[in-house]
Every structure is written in structure tokens, then in C-alpha cells.
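1st attempt posting a full record on here, be nice pls
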Amino acid sequence: MNKFDFYSVPRILFGGGQFSRVGELTSQFGRRAFIVYNGSQAIADRLIAMIDAAGIGHEIFRQHGEPKVQDIDAAIDLARRAMSDVVIGLGGGSAIDAAKAVAGLISNGGSALDYMEVIGKGQKLTRAAAPWIAIPTTAGTGAEATRNAVIGAPERRFKASIRGEQLLARVALIDPELGVTTPPNVTASSGMDALCQCIESYTSTGAHPMTDALALRGITLAARSLRRAYSNGDDDLDAREAMAMTALLSGIALTNAGLGAVHGFAAPLGANFPAPHGTICAALLPGVIAANVAWLRAESEDHPVLGRYATIGRALSAESGLTDPQAIDAAILFCVDLSQELHIPPLGQFRIAEADVPAMVELAKKASSMRFNPATLSDAALNGILSDAL
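the predicted structure (as C-alpha cells):
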């Protein structure tokens, strides 16, 4: 068994009604809250009312779209001027990643680019982040449980992370009821991201027994619940709860095991085109699985990761009697069929053209996630994956 480190948020609150505890929780960490949010204004207003009732001052920053370097730097400046001593991230992964970066840089100083991997200076965080609370309202990125904040730099055509265990939230508060009003298209995209993260964590070169258990449970939950959350998300709270748990498990798994080629592609594609992150993941997932399986079979028909893909296929299809080759085929088919049922569009609808493929492949090869992919894919294979997803 390989050696491993394991990182986790020290306190997780999960379940319906937990949102009502935000005032008491925040008061444990500070008296001046910096709130980063996106999505529902009504949910943000509820948060502000609870903060006010707890006697905590606040400053508000609305995150529009995925966070960019200039967003983070502007938010940090505002938080410092407000003398904020606790941060709250409320919303989807974009708001939570922005809050995470703000919490880290309030205490460490500097600009986002000073700490970003690949495209920045890559400085290490040396001081503890300001205490912060993560409150997701969508079930997708699992950012409430990760130790990296993903930030875009359009001028450099890339998204990259600030990373460090200092960035782990003090509290992850997951209340599935907050996701009830999430639109179906967002439910679909974010849910496919969570499923993809579980699949990639389970097959990552960094996988280990603890991440295996979390990722495989997440795969099973998503297989039974994502369609229901998409088609009847206003009423099926059980499905919302299952997807909220899937996202949480995916976040814990990925921060400890790493991801793979799907998320390697997502870094440059998300920075250069107006495609939702989860949509990119959904469109690429079947092709990446197929390409990985072909490479693994060429290496050895008994490659252990082939058995992992077979386990995924049995979990997704709920058919335990399949042979390994049948189960692998079932995994790919399930991902294709699910994306169709969720009306995931092809990536060509986001102005990604065949002419863009070589440049995106070159950028994807630099992404940190790519080093955890279980197969060493050739440029031809990578070009084929992206071309087929257009």
C-alpha cells in the first residue's frame, strides 16, 4: 500500500436546516464577516439577516462568473479595507473558490498570481488563512472540501490553482435544501462535475483506500440520484441530498487523490471559452475513459486500473454480474446516455472549433490534473478526445 497524506475540513455540518446555524458558527471565528456569494439573492439575503442577528458586521462581494485574478485581487483589497476577520463563501464553486482565495491572501499578502501554479509565481502559503466557512448551494465542485482555489487568467488563456492545506475551510456547511431552486441545467452541469470527479479520483494515480471508499460511494449516489435531481429537483429532496453528498465526497477524494485528463482539459477550455465547467467535464468524460482504457489495455490486459473502470461500470449500471470488458463498456455507455438525458450540449456550441484543438491540447498538457491521469495519452489521442466532444 502506497504512503499517503489525507486532508479534510475539520468540521462538516450536513443536512436540511443546517443553514440556520450560520450566525452562531460565524461568531466563533470573528466579528467582521466578508461574504462572497453568487447565485440566489434570496439565499444571500437570508445569510445576511442571520449574520446581522448575531451582531456580526459584514462586507459583501458578489462573484460574477468564474473567479479571475482581477476579481480575487479586488475582493482582497475590499476585505482588507473592511478589516474582515472571517470569510464566508456562499453559492456555487466559483463563489467558494473566490472566498477560499480571499481567506488565504488576507493573511499571506500579495496578489493571486503570486501564489498560482503553472502561470503564476507559485509561491507557497506560509501563514494560516483567515477562518472561513463554505456554504455550497449547488452540488458539483466539492470546493467546500478542497485545499485549492481555481482562478482564471484569460490573458494567459488558462485556469490554475492556489493550493495549500491552509486553504481548507474551518467549517463546511452543506444544507441540501439550499439547492432546491437550482435550475435544471445547473443541476445537470454541476452534478456531472461531481460524478466526473469521483470517477477520476477513483482511477487517479494518487488513489488510495480512503479516497477509493469515498469516490466509489459518490459514484453510486450520483448514478441513482442525478437524473431525479434534474427532472424533479424542486420536490425530490432525497435526490438533492444524495447529490450534495456526492459533491462533498468528490471534493474530499480529489483533494487527496488528484483528478485526470478531463480536468486537465477543463483548465484551458474554461479559461478560453464560455462553457460551464461541468458541461466540459460531461462532454469529455466518455472519450477520456475510452482513451485511457485503450492505452491501459495496450500496456497490459491485466492492468489494475482496468479493474477499477470495471468496478465503476458495475456501480453505474447496478449490474454486478458483468464481466470486466462488459462493465467497462457499460461505464462509457452510462456516461454518454446520462449526458444525453441531461441535455448536455456538445462543446462546439461554445465557439470551440476544430482549429482550436491543437492549442487547447498543448495547454491541457500543462495542467496539474494531467499528471494524475492513469494513462500517458499521446497528442493524437488528446486531439481525438477533444475533437469528438465538439
